[in-house]
Amino acid sequence: QICLSLVKLLFYLAHSPLGSIALLDFQPRQFVMVDGNLKVTDMDDASTEELSCKEDNDCTIDFPTKSFPLKCSMAGKCEGINEKRNLFNAYRYFFTYLLPHSAPPALQPLLSDILNATGDLRYGINETLRAFEKVLYLYKSGLYLQKRPLLLKDYISLKGFRTVEGEGHKCWPSYSHLGCLLSIHSAEEAAAICNSQLHCQSFIVTQHRTWTGRPLASFQSSWTDLVPDTNAVVYIKRSASSGERL
Fold first, then answer.
1. pTM (2 decimals)?
2. Residue 113 and residue 85 in contact, taking contact as beta carbons nearer than 8 Å
3. Which of 25, 45, 56, 120 is catalytic?
4. What value does the mean pLDDT of the chain take?
5. E strands along the chain, which residues?
6. In this structure, are residues 27 and 39 in contact, taking their beta carbons and an 8 Å threshold?
7. Phi, psi dihedral angles at 64 (to 5 degrees)
8. Which residues form the signal peptide (predicted)?
9. pLDDT of residue 240
10. Interval 215-244: pLDDT, tens
11. Nearest 5°: CA angle at 145, between 36 and 141?
12. Domains detected in the chain
């Protein structure tokens, strides 16, 4: 969410009515999340000026670890220097820390492609935004899910109930540091996640949703009693339950 919102912001800056705008003091502290959208808090160091040049050798962007040669346009300006400066700063301050984590395994190669392409400045902002929107579409639609055996049949489902959480069950990544709370596309995906976790015995699908509209599921290593909860459905492994208990 943070990276996509940043890319949308940089897309606007690259195509603003004032021309391409560079954020000269590009630091994480210059941004804040407002209602799920990333915004710039300080525009004092923004500039619409693009570096003047006489030849291509005048158009090199230097960063602490990399340098990139650009073209000198017929108008005597370094082509796209503001856009590319913003994009590489987004890569080194945001993408490298956020993109390798949290995505489902099937989507990680696509995010790695974005990471590598922006790190080498092979992508401009237009291509980067399209790549992010493709990943978002696959994520929201569930098309990233590979065909696999149906596992939900191995669970007993009880609507209108949830389990009283027993032993603490933690996982990575989790929306809660107190347990294992993950977003899912469907209960079938949740069953596959639970089966992949050594100690998972049950999971609860609630009506709480993430910014993409995906429901949240809580995975638990044990369960004791059932309590009414009209907004939840609990799924318990048949091997972990007994007919008498239920």
1. 0.85
2. no
3. 25
4. 89
5. 22-23, 31-34, 37-40, 46-47, 60-62, 67-69, 155-165, 180-183, 202-209, 215-220, 223-237
6. no
7. -55, -35
8. 1-22
9. 67
10. 999 998 876 677 888 888 999 998 866 544
11. 45
12. 1-144 (1.10.510), 152-242 (3.50.4.10)
